[in-house]
TrEMBL record:
<dbReference type="GO" id="GO:0008270">
    <property type="term" value="F:zinc ion binding"/>
</dbReference>
<dbReference type="InterPro" id="IPR036291">
    <property type="entry name" value="NAD(P)-bd_dom_sf"/>
</dbReference>
<protein>
    <recommendedName>
        <fullName>Alcohol dehydrogenase-like N-terminal domain-containing protein</fullName>
    </recommendedName>
</protein>
<dbReference type="Pfam" id="PF08240">
    <property type="entry name" value="ADH_N"/>
</dbReference>
<comment type="similarity">
    <text>Belongs to the zinc-containing alcohol dehydrogenase family.</text>
</comment>
<dbReference type="InterPro" id="IPR011032">
    <property type="entry name" value="GroES-like_sf"/>
</dbReference>
<keyword id="KW-0479">Metal-binding</keyword>
<keyword id="KW-0560">Oxidoreductase</keyword>
<keyword id="KW-0862">Zinc</keyword>
<feature type="domain" description="Alcohol dehydrogenase-like N-terminal">
    <location>
        <begin position="26"/>
        <end position="137"/>
    </location>
</feature>
<dbReference type="GO" id="GO:0005737">
    <property type="term" value="C:cytoplasm"/>
</dbReference>
<dbReference type="GO" id="GO:0004022">
    <property type="term" value="F:alcohol dehydrogenase (NAD+) activity"/>
</dbReference>
<dbReference type="InterPro" id="IPR002328">
    <property type="entry name" value="ADH_Zn_CS"/>
</dbReference>
<dbReference type="InterPro" id="IPR013154">
    <property type="entry name" value="ADH-like_N"/>
</dbReference>
Length: 280
């Protein structure tokens, strides 16, 4: 038996239950998890914002393979391999999104941890062998507890930076970076602004670009004010990334959309809702 942390019906409470260790199907491997992160998306899932979920949430897991399904080629993966278990557990592999490098996060058939498959708030989980994320076995420099949150929040923010189009010397605003001034500056930020400051948008634009506006903004907070601020700090031909996962409260945001701005979101079903909202 394994112990897991399941969502209690109709509430945010979690409880520890004993459930059978899952049996890997022929195309799956069984992972024994050592750690899992807790993401804001888990809270959104638990709250029912994203529709039906599995009982076991969690998508920032790290562990090792302990068993292979009968059809898994042991020359490709083996027991003991260190594995990361993230939000996308499998994708169709054949749609236009999947055929784009890195585009499987837009696949409408994707299977997500905690949403379509039991997640990582457990001691064991199964993962399709074709979508395994094998991690370097360098635990001294990359301990499990540091790798786990990178599997979702880390790679999400990194991908936004990678694709934002900013070139060296241009400014990128991370709206809702969290952690406070000291943490942000220690993490490499060159300037910090308190979102509660009355003229925060003008402060950002004036301090960074003499009032012109930044090249891109990455909105990591799920609030209407953060979404609007993320747009308002932009210059022309800029990019806006809606990375803070949560449905926008209908009453708290009236987005004024600059015509020269490109937009992108982190997960297709949710991003589609934002796009529809923006059209109305
Ligand atoms: Zn996440
Ligand atoms: Zn696909």
């Amino acid at each position: 038996m394994e112990r897991d942390c399941r969502r209690s019906e109709g509430s945010f409470n979690f409880e520890i239950r004993s459930v059978p260790i899952p049996e890997p199907k022929p195309w799956e491997v069984l992972i024994k998890l050592t750690v899992t992160g807790v993401c804001g998306t888990d809270v959104s899932l638990a709250a029912g914002y994203v529709g039906p979920t599995c009982d076991i949430l969690g998508h920032e897991g790290v562990g090792h393979i302990v068993a292979l399904g009968s059809g898994v080629d042991p020359s490709i993966v083996k027991a003991g391999d260190r594995i990361g278990v993230s939000w996308v557990r499998d994708a169709c592999g054949s749609c236009p999104c999947c055929r784009e490098p890195g585009g499987e996060t837009r696949c409408l058939e994707q299977l997500n941890s905690g949403r379509k498959l039991d997640g990582t708030f457990a001691e064991y989980c199964v993962v399709p062998a074709r979508y395994l994320l094998t991690l370097p076995d360098d635990k001294a420099n990359l301990p499990d507890e540091l790798v786990a949150p990178v599997l979702c929040g880390g790679v999400t923010a990194y991908k936004a930076l990678k694709t934002c189009g900013a070139t060296p010397g241009e400014w990128v605003a991370v709206v809702g970076a969290g952690g406070g001034e000291e943490f942000c500056l220690l993490s490499g930020a060159e300037a910090y602004f308190d979102a509660l400051e009355p003229d925060v948008v003008a402060s950002v634009k004036n301090t960074t670009t003499g009032g012109v506006g930044v090249r891109a903004s990455i909105v990591t907070a799920g609030s209407g004010k953060a979404y609007q601020n993320g747009l308002d700090v932009l210059g022309s031909l800029a990019r806006w990334f809606a990375w803070g996962y949560r449905p926008l409260p209908r009453s708290s945001v009236s987005i004024l959309w600059p015509s020269s701005t490109e937009a992108s979101g982190s997960w297709e079903p949710w991003w589609g809702r934002v796009r529809r909202r923006l059209r109305h």
